[in-house]
Amino acid sequence: MVEIAAMAIDAATLSTREINTLIRARLKSGPAEISVENPNARHNLAVALLQPGRVRFAGSVGYYCGGLIDGAEIQVEGSAGWGLAESMSRGHVVVHGGAGNGAAAAIRGGHVVIYGDAAARLGVSMKGGVVLVGGDCGYMAGFMAQKGMLVVCGNTGHAFADSMYATTCYVGGTIGGLGTDAVVEPLSAEEAEMLDRLLGEHFPPALRAQKPAGRDFTKVVAGRKLWNFDKHNWKTWQDAL
Amino acid sequence: MEFVTENDSEVLAVYLAEALNRGATLRQGLDGVLRDMDGAFCCLAVTATEMGLVKDPYAFKPLVVAETDDFVAVATEEIAIRSAIPGDYKVQEARVEEVRVWSR
Predict the structure, then answer these.
(1) Domain segments of chain A: what residues?
(2) CATH no. for A5-226
(3) Angstrom distance (rounded) from CA A66 to CA A56
(4) Cβ under 8 Å to B: A residues 140-179
């Protein structure tokens, strides 16, 4: 049986560097459940955690929480600022409240789950992984997204999925406006089931019950008109640039 | 009216002051900022009786809002609000092109 060490940190009395050093040291010595009290929306908490383990923040975090992690699980009981889990390789980041701009920016894998609303540029340039938002998202979500999956259960802002590569997006509510080269495609039965499984797996039951059924999501992908320059698509390029 | 400066923040301040002096409401002044200004900005403006914010169309600049029955707080980052006001409340990023005004 593997011993899971438990550890409590009071962030109020520590510098950000001290908090992160403590977390990393504990994770290095084996699997651990670490809870951090009084995070008070400080920036750069739990960045670059390269070992598995669980970190729970009893409050809000600031910018870049969980940035550059590789395998850890992070739970934020309040809300998060900009750049949540930015450039994460692997891991599982859950925020009970909302998130600021650029949530899951450039992630390479793992899951970013936001129960509340996400702001502008959700999943910008994501290179893999899964982003799941229970509420709405803001302006230009999915901008230049490369791979992976972006799911928004609520409404999107305008310029949704602008200039994307091969990321697949699913929207449960209203799309505020499609971005350049973003197109709606039919949703398959398999995808509807996949969405139901995804929401069931990542949301608490009471939250999942408030969200649309998988079959009610709209699928958005790139129209591919910007993937190779073709002078016949000049208007599309004009819009993009 | 022509006003020339090399400071972008000053443009917003003078623009709003001039709008208010002409009899515009704070909301009209902030709507005007959204209509007439190019570029990236977030603006928080306070008069004797009102407080208002405007967020730019590109969401380049941060602006967060906390609103309860007891207070309204606006700052660039949540950490500022948490440092000033204890308690259990939500803080949310303002939306792109949002204009909000609160009156006493």
Answers:
(1) 5-226
(2) 2.160.20.60
(3) 11
(4) 140, 157-158
